[in-house]
Design goal:
The protein is mainly alpha-helical. Helices cover 64% and strands 10% of the residues.
Amino acid sequence: MQHKDAIIEIVKKYSIDTIYHLASLLSATSEKLPDLAWDLNLVSLKHILEISKDFKIKKVRTKSPKKKFHNWIRLLLALFYGL
């Protein structure tokens, strides 16, 4: 998920209208590898949201093992990106 340019090319080439963002690290691994967790969990989400906004992606779906975190992401999508 750290290859924003490659994702942009795929979105353009295949006229993507839905993105499923399923990449994440759970807390035990995140605590051991905080830099990787930051990149994978947050930077990748930021990239997906930017791409979705720029290319008018109709749907963005995320997955989190923690229900309250998932709800927070859905709120961010609605408030800041209109998704």
